[in-house]
Amino acid sequence: MKHLLGIEGLGRADIESLLGRAEAHLHGGPDASHLLRGKVVANLFFEDSTRTRTSFEMAAHALGAEVLNWTTAGSSVSKGETLLDTVRNIEATGPVALVIRHRSSGAPHLAARHVRCAVINAGDGTHEHPSQALLDAFTLRRRWGGLDGRTVLIIGDILHSRVARSNLHCLKALGARVVLCGPPTLLPSGLESLGAEVTWRLDDVLPQADAVMCLRVQSERQSESFFPSSREFSRLFGLNAARAERLKPGALVLHPGPMNRGVEIAPSVADGPHSVILEQVAHGVAVRRAILEEVCR
Amino acid sequence: MSSRTTLLRRGRVIDPRHGVDGVRDVLVRDGLVAEVSETPLNVPDAQVVDAEGRWVLPGFIDLHVHLREPGEEGKETILTGCRSAVAGGFTAVVAMPNTKPVNDSVLVTEYVKAKAREADLCRVYVAGAITKGLQGEEMAEMGALVAAGCVCITDDGRPVMNAGLMRRALQYATQFDLPVMVHEEDLTLSGKGVMHEGHTSTRLGLIGIPPSAEVAMVARDLVLLEETRGRLHVAHVSCEGSVRLLREAKRRGLRVTAEATPHHFTLEDEAVGDYDTHARMNPPLRTRRDVEAVREALADGTIDAIATDHAPHGVLEKQVEFDKAWNGVVGLETALGLTLGAVREGALGLSRAVALLTDGPARAFGLPGGHLAVGAPADITVVEPDVEWTVDATRFFSRSRNTPFHGRRLTGRVAQTWVGGRLVFENGQMKESR
User: Fold this and answer.
1) Is the pLDDT of residue A15 over 60?
2) pLDDT of res. A223
3) Quick one: CATH architecture of A12-128+283-296?
4) Given B309, B323, B359, B392, which residue is catalytic?
5) Which of A167, B38, B147, B213 might form a disulfide with B189, Cβ 3.0–4.6 angstroms?
């Protein structure tokens, strides 16, 4: 694979190969520090992100690469430079891969059409966040052995969630049933044709879930009137302690972070026995090593 | 205009206004149609043009083009826009007022007319703004614009969101019997949307524009039209709901006309593909069902005209993130081929298609031309119906290249364009020197 622009379009074999590679990298794995020695990976973060950027950075270092960290703060973007000019300028310094995070859906696709090096989508607008979906799948696979026949419930702002889209494609490809749940204003049309089941009746589907993924509620959505208040959202769609009681025994709880504790997820649930949230973070580095290794081959 | 006499011999003349479809000789004298004859004519002093195997049509009229001058001459000028028009078989175009400065004054109207005279290729009619600066707040001086020659008023590209103001504009325009052309979009419904709201926008994570953004405004304006008894022209109809309302309004005898663009009756929202900004337009490309509804409306007379919404943009406006890209597509040079594509697919008859490019737009705005009766202006488009060609944006006469149709195979090509009896375009070449 030349680029990783999204999970859509990847086959089950592609995904399993990446997850297999990530397994080898987990907990240090075999020494991989020679794989990208002398090469440069450029992190282009047009949108703030600490966790994803750090995770890619650690993964690149572990493979022996140098990391060029580029952010919009104080950059030529503030002087009106276009995305393509920025990307071409960074490319001219000779990196082996560009890791791009951008507010606009499709920005990495635009970049990929105009550069020769690899492009990795580190989150584009409300489109995809493939490395997040891979680490989520990786986390579930390590717990379960496989995803076939499992039911994964994703709750919250599906409309604006790149995590939800990438996870939908990834989990479906690995054989899971995916149920998306949120207020009707945040459930865009056409989700069924992407292979999801869609509902706003959380309490009906909760007991069926083998894993529940809570999405971060973006507080600005409230002022856009997608829902009346955080309090009402929490009452209808929050994974609180009472709801957690109704989970299947052994069901897993995930969250891509950062969390709004007490809104989409109760602190007792986030830190409770079902939670694999910190495992997700830990797995991020291994999965991103696998991604870099794959596209930089 | 030329005083020469020309005889277009044995072409298939299709003149929907007069129900003509058959082989005829067309004699042109002093810039006007002098005779249309079933039997061969013998005119010794005439320059003879062999039109056998070709179609001889009234010159096409486009009610909706952006010539970008004054203000954005890097995208298009009145001269390059006119070249693009005659290359596409258009002998008359209506220039939209969203120039820089906006055409809300006699000064700009006169400027556009002067530049068009200088270009001296096709007829350029001018549309004035409804509101000053297209701001949707105060009416522009409609009477002055009409006196300067504006053939309609429109805030094209922007809706008049203030319903009270829109009502008064329709009322006020009745004293000039002036069509008010509207871009139907409720901005509170379209919001920050960048494409049709549906499966593709969900898949791509792009903000969608629901059809209600257009349909709700069509409904509002039809209600206002009924009260004011004015003339309304609905620009670039994109969806089934609008078509249904327009059909009903026409049945009830309201003075409403409408147009549709070749891209809206050809492409679906899926044309956005992987964020192809050339498929970004406003209103957005809709679904197959909407495309079918627009085609039915073209065929049954609900929609009066095919208009291109010719909207030239430079690379800087298109080679960017999808949500930052500008809307629009250059349209003049692909309109005929795309229209004939719909004919070949059985969506509408040939005579109806020709009417949509000629008689329909002429009647909608009360323009001369659009037919070939004796005494009509000799604005004529000669078409080679069976020639297949491939759209090559790099060879457009327009100064801009933004089209989703680059590389598409089309059948039917403009062989000659005559304006006022003068040959201005022939076989891919401008005939600018007189």
Assistant:
1) yes
2) 79
3) 3-Layer(aba) Sandwich (3.40)
4) B309
5) B213
